[in-house]
């Protein structure tokens, strides 16, 4: 659900150039009209997504990570739903204070500390950066300082663990379910506030979309780039902070708990921390590039992003580490090396595919991909204000292998996370199942948008690159 590094925009375009024509207005972004299937999907997700998160976390807390035992227990009359609920830890003042301090700290790092990493890290792009052109034809500026926030946060975490001892490194695990209620409160509050804001004081009224359906607008969002003040951008903050900064801290807390319970940290837990840590660091290293992705370029800010990044992402993307606390797995050397290689190869494909796109866009195609000048198809589209723009869609390199080959690498990495847990339970494999569904849906959603945007030019592109994810298969 959460739109972050897994969902990368497939628009391989260089800097758009207006020609000033008076062509008819084009549209991109989320849907203008809501059909019955979309409405049913929205109602299903609004109703059951919070229950799914609760069920997974409760299963680990009360049933040792079994997804079937709770159902069997209730159907056999051995337990009641009320009994399961009564055993669930409730919201506590301790958890509330932890969460308030956490979010406040991340807000302060986001809006009060200008980026300094770009001044001494070669190749890193930080500081004030421009986003992509919005449907209304505006360009927002962003303070890119996520890597800096991640470094400061983790430096303090390790300083506490090894020197200050203000709190136990297991603090996240020990308060995991009470923190779930806090995360839900923030997710719903941010989503509701964004919806009210879109009616009363939108940041840019021209970038708002009202379908007239309350449920759809609440979930998918109305305002394109809701902001408070000059720099606090809802989409950039909630996509990256606090959820993704927390991702690696959550895994570290799981490792600390494993050490506390069993006297050691297994190689499977180390692999989860390393592989997912690489993924998180990649996100923040390329945060400026993230401004060109589907989350920022097309999605409006609603419950889908607000609640998803506060609850769905930190609770379900970290299931492998949580599972390994309850079921420690010590992999053989061969299996550990194989999983590591799968994760690293997947990351390489993911990163190099996106690098080729970025290089192609930055140089306007005047570069070399796999040792030769890239091939491309030139396309045109029209913004809401009637201005015509031109784009280039690359059809060579990894982008000539499949139209979404970065997603293929993403899925390889996702599978590697899950394989660290062995085959004792299905719970840790939720991630690869979910990511396969999510990224396949994003392929179709993005291509539908591009087809509407580029028209016959998109048909030329799909003819040149016929496969979406797996060459010769799909």
UniProtKB/TrEMBL annotation:
Location relative to the cell: Endoplasmic reticulum membrane
Pathway assignment: Steroid biosynthesis; cholesterol biosynthesis
EC number(s) per entry: 1.3.1.21
UniProt record, GO biological process: brassinosteroid biosynthetic process; cholesterol biosynthetic process via lathosterol; positive regulation of ferroptosis
Keyword Nucleotide-binding: no
Molecular functions (GO terms): 7-dehydrocholesterol reductase activity; cholesterol-5,6-oxide hydrolase activity
Highest taxon above the source species: Eukaryota
Enzyme class: oxidoreductase
Residue span of region Disordered: 1-26
Family: Belongs to the ERG4/ERG24 family.
Catalytic activity of the protein: 7-dehydrodesmosterol + NADPH + H(+) = desmosterol + NADP(+); cholesterol + NADP(+) = 7-dehydrocholesterol + NADPH + H(+)
Name assigned to this protein: 7-dehydrocholesterol reductase
Annotated organism of origin: Terrapene triunguis
């Amino acid at each position: 659900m959460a739109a972050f590094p897994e969902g990368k925009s497939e628009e391989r375009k260089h800097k758009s150039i207006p020609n000033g024509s008076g062509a008819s207005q084009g549209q991109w972004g989320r849907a203008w009209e809501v059909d019955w299937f979309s409405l049913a999907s929205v109602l299903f997700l609004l109703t059951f997504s919070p229950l799914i998160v609760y069920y997974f976390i409760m299963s680990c807390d009360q049933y040792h990570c079994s997804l079937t035992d709770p159902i069997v227990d209730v159907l056999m009359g051995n337990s009641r739903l009320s009994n399961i609920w009564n055993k669930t830890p409730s919201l506590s003042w301790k958890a509330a204070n932890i969460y308030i301090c956490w979010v406040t700290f991340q807000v302060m790092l986001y809006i009060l500390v200008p980026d300094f990493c770009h001044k001494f890290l070669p190749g890193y792009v930080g500081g004030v950066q421009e986003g992509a052109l919005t449907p209304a034809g505006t360009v927002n500026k962003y303070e890119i300082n996520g890597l800096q926030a991640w470094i400061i946060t983790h430096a303090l975490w390790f300083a506490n663990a090894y020197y200050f001892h203000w709190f136990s490194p297991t603090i996240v695990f020990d308060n995991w379910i009470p923190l779930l209620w806090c995360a839900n409160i923030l997710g719903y509050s941010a989503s509701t506030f964004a919806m009210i804001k879109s009616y009363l004081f939108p940041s840019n009224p021209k970038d708002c979309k009202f379908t007239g359906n309350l449920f759809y607008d609440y979930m998918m969002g109305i305002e394109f780039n809701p902001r408070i003040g000059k720099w606090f951008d809802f989409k950039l903050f909630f996509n990256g902070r606090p959820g993704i900064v927390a991702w690696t801290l959550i895994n570290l807390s799981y490792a600390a708990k494993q050490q506390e319970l069993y006297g050691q940290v297994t190689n499977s837990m180390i692999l989860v921390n390393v592989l997912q840590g690489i993924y998180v660091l990649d996100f923040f290293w390329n945060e400026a590039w993230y401004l060109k992705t589907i989350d920022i370029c097309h999605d409006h800010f609603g419950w889908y992003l607000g609640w998803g990044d506060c609850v769905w992402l930190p609770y379900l993307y970290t299931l492998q580490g949580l599972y390994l606390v309850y079921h420690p797995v010590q992999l053989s050397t061969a299996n550990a090396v194989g999983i590591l290689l799968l994760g690293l190869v997947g990351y390489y494909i993911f990163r190099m595919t996106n690098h080729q796109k970025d290089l192609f866009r930055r140089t306007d195609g005047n570069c070399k991909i796999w040792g030769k000048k890239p091939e491309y198809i030139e396309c045109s589209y029209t913004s809401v204000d009637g201005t015509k723009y031109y784009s280039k869609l690359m059809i060579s390199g990894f982008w000539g292998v499949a139209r979404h080959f970065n997603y293929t690498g993403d899925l390889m990495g996702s599978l590697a996370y899950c394989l660290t847990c062995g085959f004792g339970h299905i719970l840790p494999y939720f991630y690869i199942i979910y990511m396969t569904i999510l990224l396949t849906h994003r392929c179709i959603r993005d291509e539908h948008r591009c087809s509407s945007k580029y028209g016959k030019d998109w048909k030329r592109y799909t003819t040149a690159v016929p496969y979406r994810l797996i060459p010769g298969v799909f």
